[in-house]
Amino acid sequence: MKLESINVTKKFPGKVAIENISMTLEPGHIYALLGPNGSGKTTWMKTVAGLIKATSGEVKFNDVAVNTDSRKKIAYMSTEPYFYDWMTVGDVGKYYQDFFDDFSMEKYDELLAGMNLDKKLKIKTLSSGMMAKLKIAVTMGRNADVYMLDEPLNGIDLIARDEVMRMVLTSASEDNIMIISSHLVEELEALVDRAIFIQDGHFAGMYDVEQLRVMESISLADKYREVYSGVREA
Amino acid sequence: MKYDTNAPIYLQVVDAIKLDIINGKISPGEKLPSGRDLAVLYTINPNTSARVYTELEAQGICYTKRGMGTYATEDLKRIKACRDEMANETLNKFLVSLKQLGISKEEAIDMINQANDICIL
Questions:
Q1: pTM
Q2: Nearest in space to B62 (alpha carbons), one of B72, B49, B50
Q3: Cross-chain Cβ contact B8/A166 below 8 Å
Q4: What keyword terms does UniProt attach to this protein (chain A) (predicted)?
Q5: Using the beta-carbon criterion (under 8 Å), do A169 and B8 form an inter-chain contact?
Q6: Less CB within 10 Å around the terminal CB: N or C of chain B?
Q7: Where are the domains of chain A?
Q8: Given strand A64-65, what is the order of strands in its sheet?
């Protein structure tokens, strides 16, 4: 299995969101997709998810350009909430089951139980932390080949973050690709093994995170500083 | 566990597990978590946890039974040697720090003798 981004460019009127992004992602890895706000992370993810069409270049999943078929294998969690207020946590599961063939209610139930999320809870009563956990549980409830989580750690407390990370680790396997976008670099240090840097819509490098520590004695956060501000910490 | 993110994480987990074996939290011959469970337990990447076991095996601290999992060594001599190695590392770091402060070995020994015993809560 492989996911290739080949010279992917997306232009919006008056703005180039991403330009010539080329890279290959392999199964068995958890990738951090890093970059300041507005650098193009979400645009790239949405292109991979098949939600927006690249202006030029293409995304290939197992050597085939992404299409409605590949969408069945690629799970994407967007930053925007996308459930109806009147739904319960249980309804969200049913909604996903109708939409996605690879959704497993059993896996969803397990994930909810692991985070003490009651299926009877109404969406409108959920705190932002609970909402974040629900979004991830329902995404991970799918048995996809590629999971993309857009800013899963944003705006949630420490405990919820730990639970989210455990959920990611429980679902990660040698056979799938996990991509997590964040600007909270420090949170991802131990979780990811590869980091992709996006700068002003361009690919700015991919690193093996543990190798940075072994070879250069620097953390991912320090590498981030080096890439984005050009400063190397003493 | 809180990590020093400038140092390899797999080595920090290796040390944590060695410490558990030395102080008996993990018994000789005890089955260790699977690589996947270890990743969840320490909130580390699964490739890092695989590397933890590779390193522990290379050091003779644990061994793998095919299809059965990974176990802590039953070799008490190896555990004792591991304790000495870790004590030496700690001692060396301590001596380096004191040297940077300009404190001689003799002074350091005096200081240790005068120091209150550490009380562990």
A1: 0.92
A2: B72
A3: no
A4: ATP-binding, Nucleotide-binding
A5: no
A6: C
A7: 3-229
A8: A15-25, A3-12, A56-61, A64-65
